Amino acid sequence: MPVITCIEDLRALAEKRVPRMFYDYADSGSWTESTYRANESDFQKIRLRQRVAVNMEGRTLRTTMAGQAVSMPVAIAPTGLTGMQHADGEILGARAAEKFGIPFTLSTMSICSIEDIAAHTRAPFWFQLYWMRDREFMENLIGRAQAAGCSALVITLDLQVLGQRHKDLKNGLTAPPKPTLANLINLATKPRWCLGMLGTKRRGFGNLIGHAKGVSDMSSLSTWTREQFDPRLSWSDIEWIKKRWGGRLILKGIMDAEDARLAADSGADALVVSNHGGRQLDGAPSAVQALPAIADAVGRDIEVWMDSGIRSGQDVLKAVALGARGTMIGRAFLYGLGAMGEAGVTRALEIIRNELDITMGFCGHTDIRQVDRGILLPGTHPGSPADRSAGPSAA
C-alpha cells in the first residue's frame, strides 16, 4: 500500500482501481473543462500571510453549518453514482462522515437509497433534491427524507438542463452502461472493484427504481431521467419545496450576487456558491472567484458556503477567509472512496483536517470562526483591492 499524504495520492490510486467510465464520470467537466480546471488553479493563486511568535495552542476547527455542530467547516457534497466508485459507496461515505463529525449529503441520483443510509448510520444526514416534473414523486422523496430523519434538504439549482461531458459520451456511460469491448476489457483490469460489486445487491438507483412511475429497472430509468429534469424551475418552486419540507433548506448552485439575493430572500438557511464542479456551464468563473462578491452581498442575511475545486485543507481555509461559513467536498471524497472505500474517505477527511489545522496556526489563528481575509496577501485573491482595480476582466 502506498503512503497516502495528500488528496492527489488518493486520486491516483482511485484512477487505478475504479473502472474508467465511472472514474471519468467523477473526474471530468463539461465541454472544454476550462471551468473545471479553474476551480482548482484559482485556489493556487491565493497567497497566505504567515505570522510568527503567535501562541498556536488550543486550536479548534469546530463550528456550525446551518445550525448543526461540525468538527470542521466541511460537509460531504451530494454526488451521483457514488455507489459505482465503490460498492455501497454512499453507506461507506456516510459512516466515515458520521465518525468524523461532519454532515453527509445523499444525492437523489445515488445508488444506495435514503433508507439504506438511515439503516446503516445513526447521525442525521442531509438529502439533495433535483427539481423534476413528477410532483407526486418529489413529494414522496421529501416524505422519505423526513421519515429517515434527514436534518436538511439541499436543492440543486443548476441542473435544469445537462451540460455535455465528452468523456461520458465516449465511454458509453448510460443507464445501464453499454457493455462495449473496451469497457469489458477495462473491467477485467479492476478485480477488486468487480468483487465488491458482486458482493452487494445495490447496483441501481435506489431512490428511483421501484419508486418512480414506470421505473422498475435500470433499462427503464434512462428514458425517465431524460424526461424528468424540469427546465421550468423558478423561485416560486423553491417556496413550494420549502413549505412541504418544513426544515432546514440549503440552495446549491449560486454563482451570481443577484441570484444570491434571491436565495437569501427565499428564507433558505444557507446557499452554496458552486458551479457543479465545472460540470455544467463551461466558461463560468471558478467558484472561489465568485465567492467574495456573493459573501459581501448577502453574508449577513444567509450562511454562504462553497464547493467546487477544494482539494486540501488550505483550500478550505482560503474559502473561509473569503467569506464562506462552510464548504462541501465532492471529488476529494470520491477519490478516497474509490481508492480505499470507507478507510479512504476517512483518510481524505484526515488530510483536509490536518492541513486546515496546521495552516490556520501558521496564519496566526487558533479558532476557525475568527478567520477572515486578513490571513490573505492583498492582490492575490478575488475581492482584494488589486483584484477590483483590474476591472471587469478580473471577474
Descriptive notes:
- There is one protein chain.
- It contains 16 helices and ten strands.
- With 395 residues, the chain is of the alpha/beta class.
- It has one domain (7-394): TIM Barrel (Alpha-Beta Barrel), CATH 3.20.20.70.
- The strands form two sheets. Strands 3-10-9-8-7-6-5-4 form an eight-stranded parallel β-sheet.
- Helix 1 (7-17) packs antiparallel against helix 15 (331-362), helix 4 packs parallel to helix 15 (331-362) and helix 14 packs across helix 15 (331-362).
- It is globular, with a radius of gyration of 20 Å.
- Residues 388-395 have low confidence and may be disordered.
Question: Which tags fit this structure?
Answer:
TIM Barrel, 8-stranded parallel β-sheet, 16 helices, 395 residues, globular, single chain, two-stranded antiparallel ribbon, disordered C terminus
CATH fold call: TIM Barrel
String of helices and strands: HHHEEEHEHEHEHHHHHEHEHEHEHH
- Mean pLDDT across the residues is 93
| Rg, alpha carbons | 20 Å
CATH class: Alpha Beta
H/I helix tally: 16
Beta-strand percentage range: 5-15%
Instruction: Report the major sheet.
Output: 8 strands, parallel
Number of individual domains: 1
Can you name the CATH architecture?
Alpha-Beta Barrel
Low-confidence stretches: 388-395
Helix content: 40-55%
User: Roughly how many Å apart are the termini?
Assistant: 43 Å
CA-based shape: globular
The CATH homologous superfamily is called Aldolase class I
